[in-house]
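ENCODED BACKBONE
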Amino acid sequence: TVGELVGRELTAIGINFLMGPSLDVLEQPAASRNDLGVRSFGGDPYWVGLMAQAYTDGVHAGSENRIAVVPKHFPGYGSSDRPLHEEVPTVRKSLEQLKQIELAPFFTVTNKAIGDPETADALLTTHIRYQGFQGNIRATTNPVSFDQQALSTLMLQDEFAGWRQDGGLLVSDALGVRAVKRFYDDTGQTFPHRLVAKDAFLAGNDLLYLGDFALEEGNYGAELTNIKDTIDWFRERYSTDQAFQVQVDTAVLRILQLKLRLYNESFSSENVLINVENVTTTVGQESTAMFEIAQNAVTLIFPTVSDLAERLPQPPKRGENMVIFTDMRTAQQCSSCPPQPLIGETAIENRILTLYGPTGSNQVQPQQITSFSYADLQAFLDAGPGPIILPTPVITSTDTVEITASPESTTTPSPTPEPPPGYQVQEALRNVQWIIFGMLDGAAGSEALTNFLKERPDLVRNANVVVFAYNAPYYLDSTEISQLSAFIGVYSKSTEYIDTSVRALFQELPYVGAPPVNISGVRYELFTQTQPNPDQIIELFVVDEDEVSLTENDEPLDVSVGDTLNLRTGIVRDFNGNPVPDGTLVRFIQQDRVDGLITIIDEIPTQNGIAQLNYVLESRTEA
């Protein structure tokens, strides 16, 4: 699993604490809301919980139990109406509603004993207000991460009480994010770092994450000063405040117990320190597994598979020109690290040529493909609908007196003028059969795709337009999607996923993935898709001590009135072909073949897609 790969690689480089995965349920995803994107497992609490268990188990297995897994954003961020880094959001749901949606995935990683591979080692509390257990929300109401009463209420729930009592750790989210700063001083003039740390600790957080811990963002010197000052102040208070001392001791005990579990009760350097030789032999060596994961994820969002065969009967071929636009943005791994592109401007082109160019299957040639960034496309659009004219070079003469040219007179051409912004895009689009977009998200500066669809329908109509969603697939609306030839969900921008998208373009892969969230642009509703498919035939077995003893093709059993049959269904599947969520009711019916009467025997909830019923045979029973 992905979790196992993550655990193996992080352990190899010496990391023992993972703030993740995100267990937030995206009920109504939208770019204008919290926009967790692919950092969330999806929009169904059952599937988010199932993947949370698998991921947690995988990280523990891959790290050989040397990484603490800390799911976030407890108690759930999916219904937030704004990003956490901007302002403290408010979720107006009752506690019972939160239990059904937001809290449900967290229950799956806390309902077993500490030390079980599927159990989280800690939970990361987040800066959100929840009306369900905090009462009437005002501007002065603390976020749950700073609210001792709210955290206590949560930890007293049956699903968390045992986990917390056994040593489950609570970790604060970053205490210096803009939302926290605005909560403590909405003028932005001060940052009371001591007070912030104290309030978070007294609320019940055992471990404080002092991220962005200064008034000015990126002022690392001030952050370090504030961190040192906070530690010194905690030390002083520990020596003078007995209640504070008890709470510190309790938190430290939980932390030490976790460390003892991670290192098998031995803190010797031989046991704790990593072997640096394992870094190069472990990190980045799992490309085969990642290719398989990527290929199982690729999703045809629009159109349907049958309609795609009509829209794109053939993949790109020799003689057909392709223009590729990529949302080319950069990011830094650290403050002193050089910026790196999230997706390179020519990443898609390079993969096409590797697989299908002259050194590959020779289906396309390099001169057929031109790649640009979104910024290049926006420059073309900003120039307006008219033609972009290339300036003509001016020729000047060294002899301005003589009208008739002579051997002595010479002409000097001026330097070739720079093409105006957008000119090269214009020329590439003059004769194009395929326009391909590599889309990330809806961040500012990424509007070139939507602007192109709105402003240049003439170009869209005359070409095959394919969009790859390398992040979440819900940033386009229905009008925009209707103009595309194909809209393909890829969900990641790493090399293996770019490779998969290219193979899908050239029709080498089946589309086996299904969107894990609602996509309003294609009227895809996750709740509907996870309902039982009425067109399926559900198998029914008679089971004896967990072994199937009778199927529909076997001879009838020799049974008598009063005998009990253990009936078990096959896997009940939803519209996406996956097992239905636990708790889906399966109706067992009995038909009397003499008078045709149909009787409902019982309705049984599924477990792992299967329903099981112990049925006592009555007289004249034929089912």
About this structure: The radius of gyration is 31 Å. The chain has three domains: 2-282, 287-391+404-528, 540-616. Residues 2-282 form a domain with the TIM Barrel fold (CATH 3.20.20.300).
